[in-house]
């Protein structure tokens, strides 16, 4: 479960980082560009923090997971409320869904992670090697 959580969080982090730069590639309204920049950056920071914690053998912070979930929902809904044009609508739907799933996987990893979720990466490798 730890490896799955780590890779999903890393993927969601990369997607949220990409959201920051979408406005530079696709012409959008000023308000949409601000939402992409601010909320995308907040999501990237919280998801990267969660990825780091999972990789270090700690559980995801509940606050970081909640912020990631809320950021994903905001990213998902923002083009509907601001400017529903085709390319940005599809991109933000996909990105918002990935960021939200990343936050939800962090929550699931926290509750279902078990003992493996409280070990550092070195401890997991050592236990799998049989030492």
UniProtKB/TrEMBL annotation:
- Specify whether Transmembrane helix is a keyword of the entry: yes
Q: Where are the bilayer-spanning segments?
A: 7-27, 33-52, 64-82, 88-109
Q: Which domain of life is it from?
A: Archaea
**Swiss-Prot/TrEMBL keywords:** Membrane, Transmembrane, Transmembrane helix
Write down what this protein is called: Sterol desaturase
Q: Which organism is it from?
A: Haloarcula rubripromontorii
Write the lineage as a comma-separated list: Archaea, Methanobacteriati, Methanobacteriota, Stenosarchaea group, Halobacteria
């Amino acid at each position: 479960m730890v490896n799955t959580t780590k890779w999903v969080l890393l993927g969601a982090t990369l997607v949220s980082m990409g959201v920051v730069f979408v406005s530079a590639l696709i012409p959008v309204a000023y308000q949409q560009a601000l939402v992409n920049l601010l909320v995308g950056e907040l999501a990237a920071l919280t998801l990267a923090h969660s990825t780091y914690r999972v990789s270090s053998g700690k559980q995801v912070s509940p606050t970081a997971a909640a912020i990631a979930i809320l950021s994903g929902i905001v990213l998902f809904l923002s083009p509907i409320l601001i400017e529903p044009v085709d390319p940005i609508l599809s991109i933000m739907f996909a990105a918002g869904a990935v960021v939200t799933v990343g936050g939800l996987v962090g929550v699931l990893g926290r509750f279902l992670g078990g003992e493996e979720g409280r070990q550092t990466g070195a401890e997991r490798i050592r236990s799998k090697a049989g030492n």
